[in-house]
Design brief:
The chain has 3 helices and no strands. By secondary structure, the chain is mainly α. Helix 2 packs antiparallel against helix 3. The radius of gyration is 18 Å and the shape is elongated. The protein starts with a helix and ends with a helix.
Length: 76
Amino acid sequence: FKLDIFTADIWGVKNPDLGSVMNQVRNMMLVTVWVFIGIEGASVYSARAQKRSDVGRATVIGFIGVLALLVLVNVL
């Protein structure tokens, strides 16, 4: 882990194409909303599950999976 890579031009002064920090945070928040809508949509079909324990397990696994992908995409 090299801290200087992550802190280089953090405010977007040298490369204005990336936008300001606030613009980047806003865009990340918009993506977050769309990512987690998938989890909400999956809960609609939970009524068709044979066992209620499967619903809880699938929700937790799905949430952790989506959260991990979101963090990876934002860090990369």
